[in-house]
Amino acid sequence: MAEVIVALDLPGGSEAIRLLDRLPEARWVKVGSILMTREGPDLIRVLTDRGLRVFLDLKWHDIPNTVAEAVASACALGVSMATVHTLGGTRMMEAAAEAADGRLGVVGVTVLTSHDAVSYARAVGRREADLAREVERQSGEAMRAGLAGVVCSPQEVALVRAVVGAEAWIVVPGIRGHGDTRGDQVRVATAAEAVAAGATHLVVGRPIIQAADPSAVFRGLLEEAQCIGS
Ligand code: C5P
Questions:
Q1: What distances in angstroms separate CA 216 from CA 121, 180, 209, 221, 222, one per listed residue?
Q2: What's the pTM value of the predicted model, to 2 decimals?
Q3: Whether the CB of 173 sits within 6 Å of ligand 1
Q4: Cα(30) to centroid of ligand 1, in Å?
């Protein structure tokens, strides 16, 4: 059983609300940097007032005090999940978890899915990198720091589940049906595959947003992931 999170990667709040009017079964939505910068906290209040759980995906990576204050602000807004970069370090993650204090789930973004081994090695100043081992290592750090879970690609879910234990959230973007356009996503899997490997939250944007019938696609995903959409 997993949740399907609708990624509201749309130009503005009115487009997001129009989409949600067509998805009455939706329980979770993701607001990222673009929509948050454009619309601000008012949109989060509109979404929570509709009974939706909000995943605020701003991928914080800053000094511990700043990240802790940002997490506290997200809690006050009624956000249910937020992201930090695991490379922000143990103290930053611990400060985020302490600030959340169980009111929201802080999840750690491991290796961005836009990296390949060469670009990641360059970013961290190494000759080479093993991305799977790096995701595994960062997941362990995130759990030791007290985070609720991690974000990883669908292809690393089984590996990560072995590290984070049975209870942690594993949040997975890059969900595509067999006939779907991949767009810029490289390491993709179907909803059923991701859930079978141990994902708890599936983040889906373009396959829903760009569909002729977003509601039908969403309901198909819920069924595929054996989610309860009420
Ligand atoms: O349109 P699509 O289904 O690819 O959307 C996936 C969503 O997940 C986007 O909002 C993207 O920013 C987000 N995401 C991702 N890869 C990560 C973290 C977040 O694709 N590593």
A1: 41, 14, 11, 9, 10
A2: 0.94
A3: yes
A4: 10
